[in-house]
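Deliverable D2.4 — example input (structure tokens):
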């Protein structure tokens, strides 16, 4: 794996597959966003278990743009029961292509792990 760029092949729920090349720093930033999103799900579940009133948790809002491509990923943890059922909205656009789809959060996390050379849990 090149230390400067990583290729992410994102399988979507509608049989679409979006493959994008990102700098490793952008992938690291996306991993940080995903970790924060998972922490949001844990906080929601902990409050529910403790029978505390719900509080709004921050959403995943990730965007990366180059001269030729824009990638946007969004996920709101407040509308899904748990991270295993969560869907991430995907938007990839360039001068020639405009794709809007969704993928499972677990799929995104697994794809990032594979791209970074780490095994899936």
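Example output (designed residues):
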């Amino acid at each position: 794996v090149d230390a400067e760029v990583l290729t992410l092949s994102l399988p979507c729920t509608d049989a679409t597959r979006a493959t994008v090349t990102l700098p490793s720093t952008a992938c690291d930033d996306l991993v940080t966003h995903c970790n924060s999103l998972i922490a949001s799900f844990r906080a929601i579940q902990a409050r529910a278990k403790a029978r505390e009133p719900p509080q709004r948790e921050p959403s995943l809002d990730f965007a990366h743009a180059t001269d030729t491509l824009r990638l946007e990923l969004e996920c709101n943890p407040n509308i899904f029961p748990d991270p295993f059922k969560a869907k991430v909205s995907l938007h990839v656009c360039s001068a020639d292509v405009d794709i809007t789809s969704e993928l499972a959060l677990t799929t995104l996390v697994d794809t990032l792990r594979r791209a970074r050379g780490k095994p899936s849990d």
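The longest strand covers residues 5-11.
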